[in-house]
């Protein structure tokens, strides 16, 4: 029966409203279309594969001959490592396992070792008190004079520095770290205990953190624990300098972080105000960049409120942010709101405060960098933060995990070229998903969305720098055949979507290109010397 | 500085190839766009929300007044149940937990109870030996005369019927089920043991099934266990009739299943060939539909090879399928390949066999219904099955789990209106993902892709019919505010994307509409009678 006739029949028999449901598009397909023979088929198939390759991040990158040789090496290892896991009952695939457990597996990966060497550009999504390896806090900060610790009933360790005798602290009495360490049977064990106590690391994360709320609770606690050390003025400055140092050592040349700009204390009980904090960050960006002028491009801070406070506080922060941006144009980028998004106040509830800059005459320039869509709950106020972030003209979106459920937001993000800051390990450890191959950013990569890869709070889960997250992006947010072009483009993206001025970006890209060429040469040299892999990236 | 000038500067300083990376699109955004005041903002915001609502499955459904009243009740419960879990440290959210554990929670849901009552249309993705509640096999099949069981060293129970004394079966000696049951302390416990032994159900799925290969291994074993009972000729026919019965009782009026068309045995050791099997299915579709002519619309079988055999076997099956389609045009729909996709042979390796129908002169009509993309491994031969399914002109895609990683395949699927058969619980139990809120079909729902919801192998994980999977689609593959329009459209989709002829579809839709009206009336009546919920759907 002719399709059109049969559809008309259906229309009749189904009644007046059926045009909503029945068109001949819905006709069940029994006819063959297109190619019928093997050759034509293979040609059509290759066209689809090529079309998808030409949609992916990195599609516009052309590798030269030397880069192609390095790519061959990289891809040999990528394929080897994936296939080792893809075999029936094969080896565990690190990105599919909670990073709190898989970290040692990642470190054995040759792909990871290559990524460590690679100049990765900029880290654009970090937080003030979780950038530095906790080992530094343990081995440096807790070894300083006047450092005290207390252990509460839940065996959680807190720290503080005191000039004289510490005050009474019922439930968690202060003891000198120096004395406690001296009493310990084994200093390394003692230090290891401090490290573990301040981190999320645990042998059985599913058991320790059965829900997202439980893991966020413990996560916030670890930040509190670290802050007792970090917010001591002398440590505060050193901590930030060390953060820049660690990222630089991981071949990251620029960073932007969200900062709460906390009160910082001195031994005598006096405190430093927010102005001191912002000036300290500004000056340390300057100092570190000057100390490493052939390696490092600088960075910027993003002032952040916590998404639980009354709107009046947000308004005051917005005004402060405007002030700091005028005061420190080189190192102050804008404003954001942080904290667990699901139980937090949605952006729209802070609308008047957040519209303040645009409602001035003339409008005041304050770039936003909103966290949005860090949730599994679709169609909820939290989920709608994605809409508000875009309508509030955010410069980038922090996480944007839920974006693929929002086709209109996806369109706007692509049209307006708003970068999505993807932090794969964070999303896994903080329980948005378990297997990173299911991360929605795989689709953003496949469609060349403006994506940057970052690390969020690497210290808390025992990562350092960007390399672990770049490894996850390369191995799990892209396919087995996706190659060096993706990595190169992700590095370039990170500079392009930074808050740098055009001139700053130009300089940063020049420096990055030099680093990239050196990386390619180093890789080739190493292979030529040893005749083969494995590389020793620490050599 | 003017943007254009600064970009030219960047271009210069970065060198000749930089046009690949730098356009002024990449410029960091500091200017405000669009609305600046609260009213304009809220208007723009509502437009985005409306735009997304108008992109979703169900966008073209208009509810009348009575439907709207039922929708209000449904949405009250949806919101209540979601918010109970969304609260900080709230109740577990069933779709986020392995169905092997969450099933009793689902059954407590009022939303689930409403969905059970709803006429759901057709179940289009099922398999021959996993459609009927295992309790039926235990309580009916194993109670029949001549039924024997054996328990192997791994405590796995197998079954077979024998006319005389069973043959020696070293390692797994046959014993009469009747005798064993009589010896048991407690018959219910004995039967419960048989049930559990044949299912995947276990209190700690993560421990029992640590990997996808382990769960597939056990899954295949449960199918083998059931087949010993099902493939006994008298049970075979009754099993299939019972399958139609159970889906009918779950308010499903039509079904299509993939069948391996196995050898069926008689007590005397003789066997029934494939022709008998196909005729039996055909006749039982006819009989059940005749027995339930005001309730049931019928069904079709899809012959399926296992994706491990040599190509010559596939070619022979394709030829058989062409033959059966000519012989039983009313109940034979086409061909597919089944089995764990990752370790299986990719479709492209069977290309010549699968192109056979289209290469005949004139081309022969054999609709395909390929399983494709039931994988987490992107960019692999398995993942590329999605490309081959579409190029081989598949009528629907089984699972299509990986489709969101394939933008070109997505385009083709939308243009050609190829339905994606989504089986949420199957994907969770068989470990493609853990939390169903991360299921990629959420995005297909958000963009009104041609989606149908099905149940795959419900018996194996203790589900019955379609309701459990519809519940998951409603609660986890769509947002909190997505309503009855989605459910109604999913039911209509299931008929539209079936392999029915236009005339058959027309009849089925008429019947479905009557059922739908009755459902709406029943819901209103129940609320009017009792004054409130909870409904008792079994009353």
Q: Main β-sheet of chain A: number of strands, strand sense, barrel status?
A: 4 strands, parallel
Mean pLDDT of chain A: 92
Strand order of the largest sheet of chain A: 1-5-8-9
Strand content of chain A: 5-15%
Q: What distance separates the N and C termini of chain A?
A: 74 Å
- Would you tell me the structural class of the helices and strands of chain A? alpha/beta
How many β strands of chain A by DSSP?
13
- Count of DSSP-assigned helices of chain A: 21
- Could you estimate the helical fraction of the residues of chain A in percent? 40-55%
Low-confidence stretches of chain A: 1-32
Question: How would you describe the shape of chain A?
Answer: globular
Largest interface: A-B, 116 and 116 residues
Whole-angstrom Rg of chain A: 26 Å
Oligomeric state of this protein: homodimer
Label this structure with key terms.
homodimer; 539 residues; alpha/beta; four-stranded parallel β-sheet; 21 helices; 13 strands; 48% helix; globular
Quick rundown:
Two copies of one chain form a homodimer. The first copy, chain A, is of the alpha/beta class and 539 residues long.
Descriptive report:
The structure is a homodimer of 539-residue chains. In chain A, strands 1-5-8-9 form a 4-stranded parallel β-sheet. In chain A, strands 10-11-12-13 form a 4-stranded parallel β-sheet. The longest helix of chain A is centred in the last third of the chain and has 29 residues, at 502-530. The first copy, chain A, is 48% helix and 11% strand. The first copy, chain A, has helices at 3-14, 38-53, 65-86, 99-107, 110-117, 134-139, 177-183, 187-198, 205-208, 212-230, 233-249, 274-291, 311-327, 351-359, 385-391, 407-416, 424-429, 441-446, 467-476, 484-496, 502-530; strands at residues 121-127, 147-151, 157-161, 175-176, 252-259, 264-265, 271-272, 298-306, 332-338, 371-372, 396-399, 419-422, 451-453. Chain A is built from 21 helices and 13 strands. In chain A, α3 packs across α21 (502-530), α5 crosses α19 (467-476) and α11 packs parallel to α12. The first copy, chain A, starts with a helix and ends in a 9-residue tail after the last helix. In chain A, β8 (298-306), α13 and β9 form a beta-alpha-beta unit. The first copy, chain A, is an alpha/beta fold and 539 residues long. The interface between A and B is large, with 116 and 116 residues.
């Amino acid at each position: 029966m002719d399709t059109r006739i049969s559809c008309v029949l259906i229309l009749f028999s189904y009644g007046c409203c059926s045009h909503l449901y029945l068109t001949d598009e819905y006709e069940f397909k029994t006819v063959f279309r297109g190619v019928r023979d093997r050759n034509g088929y293979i040609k059509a198939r290759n066209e689809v594969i090529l079309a998808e390759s030409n949609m992916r991040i990195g599609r516009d990158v052309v590798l030269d001959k030397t880069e192609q040789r390095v790519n061959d090496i990289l891809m040999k290892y990528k394929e080897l490592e994936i296939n080792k896991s893809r075999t029936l009952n094969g080896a565990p695939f690190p990105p599919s396992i909670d990073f709190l457990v898989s970290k040692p597996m990642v470190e054995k990966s040759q792909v990871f070792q290559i990524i460590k060497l690679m100049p990765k550009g900029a880290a654009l999504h970090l937080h003030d008190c979780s950038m530095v390896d906790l080992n530094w806090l343990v081995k440096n900060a807790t070894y300083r004079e006047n450092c005290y610790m207390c252990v509460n009933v839940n065996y959680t360790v807190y720290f503080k520095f005191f000039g004289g005798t510490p005050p009474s602290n019922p439930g968690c009495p202060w003891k000198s770290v120096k004395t406690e360490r001296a009493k310990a049977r084994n200093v390394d064990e003692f230090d290891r205990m401090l490290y573990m106590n301040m981190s999320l690391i645990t042998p059985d994360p599913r058991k320790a953190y059965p829900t997202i709320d439980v893991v966020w609770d413990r996560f916030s606690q670890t930040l509190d624990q670290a802050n007792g050390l970090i917010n001591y003025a002398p440590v505060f400055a050193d901590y930030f300098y060390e953060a820049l140092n660690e990222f630089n050592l991981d071949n990251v040349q620029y960073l932007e972080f969200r900062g709460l700009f906390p009160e910082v204390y001195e031994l005598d009980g006096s405190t430093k105000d927010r102005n001191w904090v912002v000036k300290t960050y500004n000056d340390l960006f300057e100092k570190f960049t000057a100390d490493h002028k052939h390696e490092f491009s600088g960075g910027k801070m993003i002032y952040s409120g916590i998404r639980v406070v009354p709107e009046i506080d947000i308004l005051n922060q917005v005004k402060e942010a405007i002030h700091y941006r005028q005061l420190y144009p080189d190192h102050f980028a804008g404003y954001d709101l942080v904290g667990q998004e699901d139980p937090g106040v949605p952006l729209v509830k802070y609308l008047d405060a957040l519209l303040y800059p645009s409602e001035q005459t003339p409008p005041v320039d304050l770039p936003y960098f909103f966290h949005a869509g860090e949730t599994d709950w679709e169609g909820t106020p939290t989920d709608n933060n994605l809409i508000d972030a875009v309508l509030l003209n955010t410069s980038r979106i922090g996480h944007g995990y839920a974006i693929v459920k929002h086709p209109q937001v996806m369109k706007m993000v692509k049209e307006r070229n708003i970068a999505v800051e993807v932090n794969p390990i964070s999303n896994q450890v903080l329980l948005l998903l378990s297997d990173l191959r299911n991360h929605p950013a795989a689709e953003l990569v496949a469609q060349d969305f403006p994506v940057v890869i970052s690390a969020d709070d690497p210290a808390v889960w025992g990562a350092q720098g960007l390399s672990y997250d770049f490894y996850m992006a390369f191995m799990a947010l892209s396919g087995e055949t996706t190659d060096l072009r993706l990595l190169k483009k992700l590095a370039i993206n990170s500079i392009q979507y930074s808050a740098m001025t055009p001139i700053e970006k130009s300089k940063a890209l020049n420096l990055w290109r030099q680093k990239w060429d050196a990386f390619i040469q180093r890789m080739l040299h190493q292979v030529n010397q040893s005749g083969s892999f494995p590389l020793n990236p620490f050599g």
